[in-house]
Design brief:
With 253 residues, this protein is α+β, with helices and mostly antiparallel strands. The protein has one domain: CNF1/YfiH-like putative cysteine hydrolases. 24% of the residues lie in helices and 23% in strands. The strands form three sheets. A six-stranded mixed beta sheet has the order 3-4-7-6-8-12. It has a four-stranded mixed beta sheet with strand order 1-13-5-2, covered by helices on one side. Strands 9-11-10 form a three-stranded antiparallel beta sheet. A hairpin with a 4-residue loop joins strand 6 and strand 7.
Length: 253
């Protein structure tokens, strides 16, 4: 197995963290690389080996916890490892020895930290979760734990970019119904279709929740096939399955 090399964000240097793509790992075929999707059709042993390799690259010896993601705006605060994965799309913890993560395949992974309070969060922000406020509830859970919004920094990892994200009128209307100003996250494409800036929208929601220091890695999961898994790309190619990448963060030990 080739050892994976995480992408890191300077704003999060004070805490262990990493955004991973598909490079490295033990999976083969359609899932070739560092597929960490527990719900994929990949070999289960390879998936667990990939998750262990990613964890070792960020915080060796920690316990990695990821939720059962359902495109919700639900965040769970953790004090200890869980037996059954909660149906949620964000996790928060301040417990040393726990590492939290989310998996994605076009949706935006968001890692957050208040380094002074040593409280971290991880959120899976697809369009539905982002619109419903998954980053809002993650920031609120961190504040409830003892963080301060003005101290929280956030990084948005690799996700589908606007140039690759074509949507229809009904999609756009959902966002404009929530806030007319959301029109700025769309540009016209072909007739009755638009391109949506998921990364920009997530950054906007973080700022609206009081997180003033936000960075985005600017990597396009759809276009960069050698580096990232993409649900939309796999669908357009007619492939029967697809892999997932992971983003991990942990309190500083």
């Amino acid at each position: 197995m080739t050892e994976p090399a995480p992408l890191r964000a300077g704003l999060l240097d004070a805490v262990p963290h990493g955004f991973f793509g598909r490079r490295g790992g033990a999976s083969a075929g359609l899932h070739a690389g560092l597929n960490v999707g527990l719900g994929s059709d990949d070999d289960e042993a390879a998936v667990h080996a990939n998750r262990a390799a990613a964890l070792a690259a960020v915080v060796p010896g920690a316990c990695l916890l990821t939720p059962y993601q359902v495109h919700s705006a639900t965040c769970v605060t953790l004090d200890a490892p869980f037996v059954e994965r909660p149906r949620a799309d964000a996790l928060v913890t301040d417990r040393i020895g726990l590492a939290i993560g989310v998996v994605t395949a076009d949706c935006a992974p968001v890692l957050l930290a208040d380094a002074q309070a040593n409280i971290v969060g991880a959120a899976h922000a697809g369009w539905r979760g982002a619109l419903d406020g998954v980053t809002d509830v993650t920031v609120a859970a961190m504040v409830a734990r003892g963080a301060r919004a003005e101290r929280i920094v956030a990084a948005i990892g690799p996700c589908i970019a606007r140039a690759s994200y074509e949507v229809d009128d009904a999609f756009r209307q959902r966002f404009e119904a929530a806030d007319g100003a959301n029109e700025r996250f769309f540009v016209d494409a072909r007739d009755e279709h638009h391109r949506f800036d998921l990364e920009g929208y997530v950054a906007h929601r973080l700022a609206a929740a009081g997180v003033t220091r936000v960075t985005a890695l600017g990597r396009d999961t759809y276009a960069e096939a050698a580096d990232f898994f993409s649900y939309r790309r796999a669908t357009h190619r007619g492939e029967p399955s697809y892999g997932r990448q992971i983003a991990i963060i942990a309190p500083a030990g």
